[in-house]
Design a protein that fits this description.
- The protein has about 130 residues and is α+β, with helices and mostly antiparallel strands.
- The protein folds into two domains: about 50 residues, no CATH class; about 45 residues, no CATH class.
- It has three helices and six strands.
- A three-stranded antiparallel beta sheet has the order 1-3-2.
- It is flat and about 50 Å long.
- It starts with 5 loop residues before the first helix and ends in an 11-residue tail after the last strand.
């Protein structure tokens, strides 16, 4: 597990202030949906989350059936580093506990996924009904 250090925070702040990296604050549910959208080939979607707040500033908004929405775009990932309980050589993964929340959508959104697994199974051994 990587734990940010005081030095990491300083490096980030220096790069951010120099305009060399960007920071975008994204609500957790919107983050998951943006990752899922990237993996599913969805070009954009509307969400009510963040409408009328600073998070929506500069973004396209729309009223649909009397409710305000914000247009969000997918987040495409170059490399996803994920942890899985088990895998087979076809790349099927079984996630444990909270890894089920973001690991699958991170893998979907990524061009390349690197998975650390506790157990490598034979082909056909993984239960397709398991999470």
């Amino acid at each position: 597990m990587l734990v940010p250090t005081q030095r990491d925070a300083h490096v980030f702040e220096t790069l951010y202030r120099a305009g060399e990296i960007e920071l975008e604050v994204v609500p957790q549910g919107t983050l998951a949906e943006r990752l899922r959208a990237a993996g599913s080939g969805i070009g954009a979607f509307y969400t009510p989350t963040g409408y009328g707040t600073l998070l929506a500033q500069g973004k396209e908004t729309r009223e649909i059936n009397g409710r305000g929405y914000v247009l969000e775009y997918p987040i495409h990932v170059d490399v996803a580093l994920i942890n899985a309980a088990a895998a087979d050589r076809w790349g099927n993964l079984i996630y444990n506990k909270t890894a089920r929340n973001f690991a699958p959508v991170m893998a979907m959104a990524a061009s390349q996924t690197i998975a650390a697994v506790a157990r490598v199974c034979e082909l056909g051994e993984l239960d397709p009904e398991a999470w």
